[in-house]
Structures are given as C-alpha cells and as structure tokens.
What we know:
Blueprint lengths: L8 E5 L11 H15 L3 E5 L15 E3 L5 H11 L3 E3 L4 H13 L2 H5 L2 E2 L4 H8 L1 H10 L7 E4 L2 H11 L3 E5 L9 E3 L2 H14 L5 E5 L5 E9 L5 E9 L12 E3 L6 H18 L4 E9 L6 E7 L4 H10 L3 H9 L26 E7 L20 E7 L2 H10 L19 H9 L5 H10 L4 H8 L3 H20 L5 H9 L4 H8 L3 H10 L5 E4 L13 E5 L18 E6 L10 H16 L3 E6 L14 E4 L4 H11 L4 E6 L5 H12 L9 H8 L1 H10 L7 E4 L2 H11 L3 E5 L9 E3 L2 H11 L8 E5 L5 E9 L5 E12 L9 E3 L6 H18 L3 E10 L2 E8 L6 H8 L3 H9 L17 E7 L20 E7 L2 H11 L9 E5 L2 H16 L3 E4 L1 H9 L5 E2 L10 H6 L5 E4 L3 H7 L1 H9 L3 E3 L2 H16 L16
Parallel strand pairs: 1-2, 1-4, 2-3, 4-5, 18-21, 19-20, 19-22, 20-21, 34-35, 34-37, 35-36, 37-38
Antiparallel strand pairs: 6-9, 7-8, 7-9, 10-11, 10-13, 11-12, 12-15, 13-14, 15-16, 17-18, 23-26, 24-25, 24-26, 27-28, 27-30, 28-29, 29-32, 30-31, 32-33
Helix pairs in contact: 1-11, 2-3, 5-6, 7-8, 13-14, 13-15, 14-16, 15-16, 18-19, 20-29, 30-36, 31-32, 31-36
Amino acid sequence: MPKRTDIKSILVIGAGPIVIGQACEFDYSGVQACKALKDEGYRVILINSNPATIMTDPGLVDATYVEPITPDMVAKIIEKEKPDAILPTMGGQTALNTAMALHRDGRLAKLGVELIGANAEAIDKAEDRLLFRDAMTKIGLESPKSEVVHNREEAAKALDLVGLPAIIRPSFTLGGTGGGIAYNRDEFFEIVQGGLDASPVKEVLVEESVLGWKEYEMEVVRDRQDNCIIICSIENVDPMGIHTGDSVTVAPALTLTDKEYQIMRDASIACLREIGVDTGGSNVQFAVDPATGRMVVIEMNPRVSRSSALASKATGFPIAKVAARLAIGYTLDELMNDITGSTPASFEPTIDYVVTKMPRFAFEKFPGAEPLLTTSMKSVGEAMSIGRTFQESLQKALRSMETGLTGLNEIEIKGAPDKSAIVGALARPTPDRILVIAQAFRHGLSVEEIAQASKFEPWFLRQIEELVKAEGGLRASGLPKDAKGLLELKKKGFSDERLGELTGHSAGEIAKRRRSLDVRPVFKRIDTCAAEFESRTPYFYSCYEGDGVQPAECEANPTERKKVIILGGGPNRIGQGIEFDYCCVHAVYALSEAGYETIMVNCNPETVSTDYDTADRLYFEPLTAEDVIELVEVERRKGEVLGLIVQFGGQTPLKLAKPLEAAGIPILGTSPDAIDLAEDRERFQKLIHQLKLRQPENGTATSQEQAVAVTEKIGYPVVIRPSYVLGGRAMQIVYDREALDRYMRDAVKVSGTNPVLIDSYLRDAIEVDVDALADKDGNVFVAGIMEHIEEAGIHSGDSACSLPPYSLPAKILEEIGRQTEAMAKALGVVGLMNVQYAVKDGTVYVLEVNPRASRTVPFVAKATGQPIAKYAARLMAGEALSALKIRKATGKHIAVKEAIFPFARFPGVDTILGPEMRSTGEVMGLDSNFGRAFAKSQIGVGSTLPVEGTVFVSVKDSDKAAMVKPVKRLIELGFKVVATGGTADFLKRHGIEAQRVNKVLEGRPHIVDMMKDGKVQLVFNTVDGASALTDSFTLRRTALMHKIAYYTTVAGAKASVEGIAAVSEGALDVAPLQSYFKGAF
C-alpha cells in the first residue's frame, strides 16, 4: 500500500536529555525518522528538550520545539500546530510514556490526533507486565512465573509463589530503573518499594529467577500486510541477571543451533503479531536454560530501542528510516534497501562477520556506589567493533573502550592464586568480568570451573582461553619470525601495542616489523547481504585475512577526490558525550557542502556520525593510532588527503594528534603544539603573563612534598586535579592538609610525566564559559558568552548556564571578549576555542582554555541561531572568517542550559556537586525572560518547581545573608518556611518567621521525617567542609528519591525563586526555534 494521504502533518516526540538507559541512539533514530517523513512531503513537527542533538537543528523539520517533554507541553504544541498524527516510537520510553499519558487522560481523542507506528493498545500490551504475560500464554509462549504487585501484602503473596532469588521489574520504566534482584526477604521488600516508587503506574512484576540462563534478542520489523523480517539476532555474552544494555553482546547469535534459531525466530514473529505492532521495529528478549533448553520470553519493546541502533549499525539496515515509512502506510516490499540499491527492504539481512558491543561504565565518578551489575542499567555508553572472528571482534572492542585497554590486559584478583578467591571473583557481576575470566585462565582454572562460577557459555570461554594461550606463547618465545605467524596473531585481533607489551617491545617497533613483513589489514564493506549483491555504500571495517601466501582481498576502493578525515569521540561517557558527536556531524555537513569528500572514523553505534548516509565514507574502527594510520594509508592510495580533524571529538582524537603527526599525517586547524600549550601548565602560564592576563594563583607538583609546599604557599582551599583529563576526572576541592594527603595517596598516581595541578579556589566567583571562532589570519568572532548559575568550583558541564548572561555588567562582558580574542591570536587557533573565566569582585580570571570544540557548542548554536561547528570546519579547511558572513545574534530571548544527573541509579551516592563532572546530559529552556526559561529547564530535567507549600532552608554561615531576599520572595508567593537552628535564628533576626526543625543528628522528629511525610516541597541546602557534608547526606538523598526540588548552591536557589515566580504568574507557553531567529542550519 502506498503512503497515506489522509494525514498532512506529523508530530515526532524526541527522547529528551541523555540519561542512563536512553542515550544518543534516539537522536540517531529520530534524525532518520524526521528525514524520511520530510522526504515523503509531510509537515514535520518535533518536540525535544535536548539541544545537543542533530534532530533539534532548525533546518531538519518544519517546527522544532525545544521544550520540556511533558504531557502538558505536548498538548500545548498539538493545540498550536494541529498535527494529524503523532509518532511516539522514536523517542524511547520518554516518548511512549508521554503519548500514553495523553491517551489515558483523553486529550488525544479530544484533540483528534492518532498515534501511528504503534497504537495505544499495542503499547499497553507490551509495556504492561501482566497484559504481556497473558498475551504470551495465549499464543503458547512461556514466560517466567510471575505476579503483579501494587503493595506490600501482594508482594508477600508473590514471594510465596515465585521464591528467592526473585527478579523485580517495574512497569513503564526505562533501563530497568527501580528494578533489581533480591536474594533474601528484607532485600525483596526494599527493592519492591523502590520499584513501586519508580513506576509511573505504581506497579511491579515479581518474577521467578532465570539468573545464569543464556540471553538472546531478536530485532524484528513488521508491516501492515504482515510481512515480517528478522534484522538481526543478538546474543548476550553475559548471562541473565545483567541488564542487556550492560552486557557484552555479539551479533549474530553464535551459540544457537539452526533449529533453536528457527524456533526463536518464529516465536518473535508470533509475539509481534499478538501484540499488534504492525508498523515498525521491535525488539524481543528471550532466555534459554542451558541445562534443559527451556525457552521463555522476557519482554518486548514496541519501539525503536538501543538494540535497534546496534542492529542497524551491525547489519547496515536502516531500521528507524524504514520504520518511519512503514508507519505512514508503506509495506516492506515497496521500499528499497539503500545499501545495495538493488534489493527491496523485505530482503532479510545476512552478515558474514562478527559484531561485538561492549558497554562503557562510569563507576569511578560515583564514589560510594558499588561497581556491580544488576537488572537496572548502569552503563553510560558503548563501543561496537567488527571482525571476521569473535576473537578479532572482541579484542577490537576492548581497545575501543577508551579505558586504557590494549586487549585482555592482566588485572589483579584479590586473594589469587588461591582458587576459592578466584572463583568468588568470577561469580561477582563486575563491569570487567571478561578480564577476570582471562586472568582466571592465567591462574590455571579450567573452562568447566570458570563456566560453573560465572555462568558464561563455555564456547565463549574457550575462545578467551585460546587468546590467553597465544599470549603465553608470546611471553615464552617472543614474536614469530615469519609473516604467517604474525598474520595468525593479527587475525586473532591482537593490537601492535598488546604484542609489544607481551614481548617487551614498543608498539612502534612491532608496527615496523609487521610492515616489513607486509602484514597489513584489508578493509571489507558492510553490505547487508554477505556479498551476494554489490554494495554501493562505502561502510567499512578492517580485518586481517588470507594465508600469508595469497594476497587478501581489500574492498576499500578509495576515490580520486580531495578528502578530509574526521575522527569521532568513541563511546559515550560522562565528560564526553553527544555534544562532541554533534560537532563531528556538523563538520561532515559543512565540508561536504564545500565540495570535499568526507570520511568519518568512529566506533560508537548509537550516534548520527556512524550513520551510513552522514559522511561520504564511514570506517567503523577503534580510535587508536594503529587503526587510524592504517586506514589513512589506504585512503592515500588515490586522491588527496587534505588532513584530519581531531579537535571535534573531545579528548579521544586529541590524544592521537601527536602520534598521527609523527606518522606524517597532516592535522587541520589549530596545531597539536598549540593544543599542548593550552594543556601544559607552565607553557600556558608564560603565555598568560605575556598577555598580562590574570589566573588564580597556581602551581604544579610531581610529589607529595611538592604538593604540600605549593598548597601552603597558595593557601587553602585549593582545587586539585591531574593534568590531561576531560570532564574533571579526579578533580577535588581540598580544604585542609589531611584531605590533601588523602588525595595524593588515593586519588592519583603522580609522576614526573603526570604532575597534579593545584589552583587557589575562588569562593563565590561567577563562572563564565565562552565559545569563539578564529581563522588562519587571526580574525576572531566571539560566538557566545554564557554565565553559569552555580558558582565557580562546580564543573562547567554540571552547571546550569544562561545565554546571554543574566547578571554580568556590559563592561565585564567587553573585557571577556577582549581577553578571548587576545588568547585566540596568541595560540594561533584555527577553528573553535572555548575559554572558562571566573569573575570575582569585578576582576576577570582565566581558569582554562581549550583550543577545540567544547560541550557547549550545540547549546550556543541553538541559542544564537549560528551553526558554529559548521563555520569552524570551514575555517579549518582554510576559508576566511569574512567569507562566512556571520552576523551577531540579536535575539530578545534567553536560553538556559541545565544538566541531568544519574544519581537515582547509584544508591549511596551523594548528590552534592563539585569540580568532577557527573551529569550525563542536558536540556535547554527557551523563553523571553530568565525566570520562565529557567523554569522550563527545571521541568525539562524532571524536577518540579512547586508553586506552593513549604521551603526548607539550611545553609552554611557565609550563605545566610544571601538567602534573606529569596526566602522573603517565597513568603510573598505564599510559601511557609522551616529551617534548622542557626539558619532559623538568622532569618528571624531579619524579620522572617521560620518554623524550627531538627537536623538528622539532633534526634527525631527531624527534617528527613518531614520530607518523607510530604510536608516539604522545596529544599535549599548548602554546606561547608567534610563533616557537614556527611551530616546532611540523608537529607539530599531523600529529596532525590522523593522527587522534592532541591538546590545545593545559593545561585541555584535564587534562580529557582525566579522560576517559581514566573510559573505562578501564569502558565508557560511554547514556541518553535524557528520563531526565535531567522535562518536554518
């Protein structure tokens, strides 16, 4: 059936900010869907609160609403835009839940809008645990034994049926939020209570344990004519009990017999039919008991998911693009497969390689959180790698992680070589269990013993055992002398660096030896059809092939064009997220428009940059010097490589600048030396003195003694951190000698090559972020000046900020502009540069300079209407600033960026902010005044600004005076005030009546009791020093878990009062980006 003509306009709901369990894969699917619907001639309207996405660029759809994704806001957009249909399957759980809320309260029917892609009945059947179980039973598929629970009594009944261990799964939540595994009764009731709180419909499923079973997923697409195809089968290397987003997975499934695969294939198609998803992609999860072969269905997602992004990148089949077209009425046989250009989309993909996905974790950012994996997702990103064998694919994935791994590196198992200690370590679901398994083989355990302890499938264990044996051979007898021996090792995925570690050589020596023996990788195309048809899409992976006699076949076939290679950012992680991918994609767009061939190198399956139709050519490879140099040499065989762009992907490609330059590969834009100068403390200090600018007092230390000497000279408190890090890794504010000693002992390994940097901490200074552009002739354009809402000392990625600045005088802004220009010229910046300043008592201090793209670039672009990453790419390719004809932005609106944090997923972690970055994503609030824009940013991250109720105030002495005005304003707005002793007395002296309440340590009833009883709606809590921090920890944690709005800085509290005032004056309104400025990008 051709497309529907009865609908003219479609509203797509995005996924909002990046959180754990819902990352940039929804930007990728959303972009594909929006493009497909536009191409089909529909008017497309989008709501998404996340500015760091390609999909919120104003040129992608007709009306882009960067507004909070709540049922009320969506209803307002529907009233304004009057779309005919809503597509809710492209924005993860956020979009589904929002659409379902509007369906349930009758607003969709009232406004006359239909859901396409999946209707409400199908969404309910798949998402509601009880309905889903009944549907599966009806078609003869088994589910684990389970009971639906709404309270403690029902939970006790369920426990008798299911027994322990039990798995708890809340309904309608994301990434297993609120779920877990209970091994005893106390734990069971505790997790059930947490799950009921997390579920929007207050219901959880208590399920029999299938821990240790094998886990599989099927990606299925079905159209309205009941054509069904399996895109890809995925096998979890980790056993059941670990969320699939946190598992190492492989595609295709490697340990199923053909018969088992066919049974699972039939079951997944039957599941789709019964649930009624008739237009688009879904994912069905199965568990198989390795002892008996019993198969049960775990769950299904009636939407495009994280696994669909992986399946798309693994096979080349554009699931989201196809799903969007199916939603408007097409059938699979009417659509072409873009990759081959000659087969229809109803042709099931086949793959002749192995794909491994490996999750990336951030436990080090959350001291106090136990690094154990459960059914609740904790990973912040993932890398994917492709090889001809599982071993090659696995080792490529390990070195794609950006955690310093070069392969199956040795780790220490506590208590080894004692066997019981090793078995104990194997049984613990830690993030690095693959390394623990390899280490256990080195200690002499057998495949059977390891399988028994870890529940890993023995086939995977044997593969790892072979790799460990090969390593043992290298240690004993060194590198093979002949090409054939070396080729065999490279076929198993060993990197030059790992071979060097094992044989006592440098990676450079290994590479030299390998080249002299002519052992080089070849590049293969991903073509969806295992080379049955010719592929027109240049989407490549490297592998080592052949027998050492016959040359291997390389399919790279480079072109004669002028080309630019852009290096991406690798796996998503805290400190280096989607913002950098956004910059890479913009660089590709701009350089393609300027007529260059663009080549993208990245290993992140979730992003727009690794979409096959973003760049002209795509290499899905680890971002290491060895892998990048090999592909650059292939591209140099024909045409001209103008150079590489390393400044857009965050710290990952910057680390490669030196080795690539040494290999004679040109780097475009700012020189690696200038980047180094900005990172190198002493060189940078000299530059600051030359330019007569000011820095906070600082010093560097390479030992404990030096650190003490430097700190005593500067005076406490100081900010201390290692050099060359991103996202404030291991950065702390130190208040006394004891804390300094502890930091030097535990937090960092300091050496002559890696000093620590120590700065005087400017208390209560206002921090400012600036993004600027510069060309090769030293012309500079200041693109955006952002004022942070939290004071200096809180990482800029975690701080809310306002553009334009909301409190700084024009004179200071002028001075900031002048200093930015001076530094850009002195550093010879070509392209983007970011500077952070602190303003204290009218003096401007330079905190740091990054001559590269920063995480604020997309926010500045959306707030000012200037595509600054595109401009930067063209400047780097040699154009002049004047040729770009940039006009100063003159909007009347204010944009506020706010960060979102994953604290709720890490029990036991304090929510206080500091200089180490811990946010996973951001939203933007846009409006005509600061209060409303700030209110929108708060609603966007899911904290509710109360308009009435009680505010609790407990602040450190130096903040008490600053709190008087905001608290008075709240009283005028009708709030009641409660406060702890000291704060209450202070407020009383200033004419504010506050009810006194006990601190937690002062005995009950105390403040936390009040909060749990729902008697507090807003919390202002600032602390000084380490002891006060621990005293008030339970207070902040309670606010988080009970969803009470809380602010831990004075500036944040003041801003929230403005937001509350704005909301109480009248309802917030919505407006598309296109109405704030002219011109799209």
